[in-house]
Amino acid sequence: MYADADHRARSLHWERDVEAWLQRAGEAVREPLGITFELESARAWDRRGPDGPLEPVLETLEAVDAGEDVDLVVGLVAAPASFSGAQHELGFARVLGRHCILRGLSGELPVVARQRLEVAVLLHEWAHTLGAMHVRDGRGWMAPKYDAGQRGFDARTLGLLSVGLRHLPAARVELEAQKAWARELRGVVEALKGPAWAGPERDFLLEWTERVRASSGVLGPEGTPRSLTPHERQRLAEVIALEKAGRPEVAAEALEPLAVRHPQDERVQLLACYLAVHLTPGADATRERCEQAIARFPREPSLRMNVALLHLHAGRFDEARDSLVTARANLEARTDVEPAQWAGLAGLFLRAHCVTWAEQTAARAPALAASASVLEQAARLRRQVALPSGPGVDPAREAVLVRAVSDVEALLHAGSPAPARERITSLAKAFPEHPSVTLLQCELHLFQGRLGSARTACERVLALQEDAVQAHLLLGVLATNTRAHARARKHLERVIALEPSRTEAWHLLAREYRGTRQLKTLQVRYREQFARDLP
């Protein structure tokens, strides 16, 4: 119970009065419904307002206290200037809501009459919150206008109330409980025939039950998804702070109750998916959670990016690529995209080996260090696998080719030339005359000891792409083994110029420069590059 300043000013012992008020209301419904009212707290309400419509006052009360921990929140305001008997002037509640506003009653009324009216108004508004509607026969508490002769609820209203009491409070926060309530409530409402029950309230209840049936989340009294309460919004802010502080496990645990209770809240579900992806990327529950969020919010790019991360973690590169392409389309459809989102998408494209798309996406956020890093890594990958920039392979097929280069090289390093040869043959058909495939042929020839064929293949690669660093390295190895020192030094120096981190090229060059003055210069260069001596 919240009493505003005007009500408190006119009722000296208002806390004691409301306890007696609730006791009388409980006595009135204990026999037909088997319930009592218990006061959780009586609180002063820092509000003062004119004698006017009650719906705005109800909205103010809802903002003050969401009522998550009680069955009903009541706001008490001053008595009306004049008493007409119309229920909407004495109190107000939303059908299926959790709050109601009650006006105080004039002390000019006889005590017994005032107490009887107080009980009738309280129970009338409370009944609305359980789904009861106005009954236009004037004989019970749900009549639109109060009459001193009214005594109790009619039998069919008691049926409606019993349905609500069986399913609440769980039906306000749990989807299955709400669906069960809606099914039973619909059956009762459909049976209410006749002019006493006709009107917008009956239509609203039928519409609400239909929305619940079709909904994947808990609905509020207006038939829309339940919004976060002030306490829940504060909790969400705490979760975000925990994640930013590097405590994702604690953040995920704190967020879980909100994620369960608010499946239709976009911000909650985005964060829940994000945390799950980074904590348990291999779990089936994580993928299911994120895919359910995508079904609810299909235009949210960050969800697609998180699902792409799951696919990358599981090695499902084609699925990751498809998710990223959709994320890009979602971003392009927006006008308020942060540059960091483009940079993040570019990084994921690169992880999926979609090099051209990574470069194009990074170019949308050129001022960010993350974009510059993507462009640098993409250039290194192109040099490593001999993937030319510009017209060539369809960007949608790049990832297949890049992964194939890595797979074939792994087979050769594992000493499996036969399956490597089969893959190269297949790639040559899919990507004819492509320098990446020719590079693999060079490596296969070198592994098989066919040095002339290896040299010819690698030189053909360089003719197509001069900065193919792996081709330079392989030609350097070939030249070293055949004592072609000048050629070896040329190719190895080019490797170091393109990729200074390739230590094998430094070591081969040291062998080439042994006994010459260039060795000391190379040692100085190595120390400057790695801050240690050349072995």
Question: Could you please describe the fold and organization of this structure?
Answer:
With 535 residues, this protein is mostly helical. It folds into 3 domains: 213 residues, Collagenase (Catalytic Domain); 154 residues, Serine Threonine Protein Phosphatase 5, Tetratricopeptide repeat (Alpha Horseshoe), CATH 1.25.40; 120 residues, Serine Threonine Protein Phosphatase 5, Tetratricopeptide repeat (Alpha Horseshoe), CATH 1.25.40.10. It has a 5-stranded mixed beta sheet with strand order 2-1-3-5-4, with helices on both faces. A hairpin with a 5-residue loop joins strand 4 and strand 5. The protein is elongated and about 120 Å long. The N and C termini lie far apart (81 Å). The model has no long low-confidence stretch (mean pLDDT 90). It comes from Corallococcus interemptor. InterPro entries: TPR-like_helical_dom_sf. It holds the Pfam family TPR_16.
